[in-house]
Write a structure and sequence with these properties.
The protein is α+β, with helices and mostly antiparallel strands and 420 residues long. It folds into three domains: 52 residues; 223 residues, Hypothetical protein af1432 (Orthogonal Bundle), CATH 1.10.3210.10; 79 residues, no CATH class. The chain is built from twelve helices and eleven strands. Strands 5, 6, 7, 8, 9, 10 and 11 form a seven-stranded antiparallel β-sheet that branches. A four-stranded antiparallel β-sheet has the order 1-4-2-3, with no helix packed on it. Helix 4 runs antiparallel to helix 5. The chain is globular.
Amino acid sequence: MTEPQAQFIDVADLRIGLFVYIDLGWMSHPFPLNSFKLHSPAQIATIRTLGIERIRYSPEKSDPEPEPVEVGEAPPEPVSPQELERQKRRALLGEQNASLKMCERQYTQASRSYKQLLEQANSAPDKSRAQSQVLVEDVIRQLQGLEESSIRLLSEQIGDRGSQHSVNVLVLSLLLGKACGLGEADLQELGIGALLHDIGKQELPNRLRWDDEQFTSAEKKLYQEHVRHGIALGKKMELSSAALLCIAQHHEAANGSGYPMRLAGEQISPLARILALTNQYDSLCNPGNPAAAQTPHEALSTIFSRLKGRFDGQTMSVFIRMMGVYPPGSVVQLSDESYAMVVSVNSSRPLKPRLIIYDPQIPKEEALVVDLERQADLGVRRSIKPVQLPRQVLDYLSPRQHICYFFERASSLAGGDDTS
């Protein structure tokens, strides 16, 4: 039986009842299927956030709601400015939530894939390698499809603790690699190395899988063995030499203070230099001991000051610009004394992040993301620790204990242009 003839329609003309085809990769939209019948305004609103102007649909499978026909009807009553503002706010909130849900769906899918490939790395190394390649290719394709991207803070409940670190490092490494001008082939090698950099930890006892300052010297030595285990597993999976170097060198340092080989400077591969930096940043934000966690702003400051000698200078400069002075997840006080949490940063405008501002007049689930680029009279005054927040502000902003990042189209949150 042949597929019914498909036609195209502008997304602005979508109506409930149309049977549509989403011609995008599985990580590029939040729907469980690529083809389905529209049955709610929310689905239409979500499609309009995907950055496409036209979409395929099947007339034969569609039974759209009829368009309203005006036959001698009286003109509609004018809508008040207050109602227009409410309608605008609802539309912006819908777009904002749809963009966040898409990022979280992509992150969750990546986490599940990582967990599956980890479970079969020893028993089915070929299958595990193939799954790694597909996962990294999908993430790169999504990233390369965006002319300009922003780093997005996600809800901390997504994914699981065992996969969060590796997926965070994968996302940050690919973003940094792209910002450093890497080509697609190098991004693929970097992505594989970043995704699998800690694969050797599954050979360690559970209590030694997270670095801890309280480790004894013997425990520290055992923990560091995860690099050797990772190289062995990587060879078993027949990874490329570039990906193996990432695994082997992700704890090496530019000043020679790293391990296991105490390599320095040019002895460390360019891809491993990127991975070492993103791995350190995420470990500071999401350490094994939650009590030792640093805010994203503190982590960036620590890398720039106390740990500066450990990283390639040029790579670190690009990373700091990419993350912004106040990376997503940072809690800040603004120039008007209000409190806010940074949720998105565009590297081309690092001093103008997007944030959620505490406003007791607006329920937190209805708070719009505010773009500081559109607020000429508003800026960030300082970063603060969550414990410094008044209780009601802490409950409203809900700073993350575990930081998770993905990327999104830079313009997807651009609607939040006021603080009212």
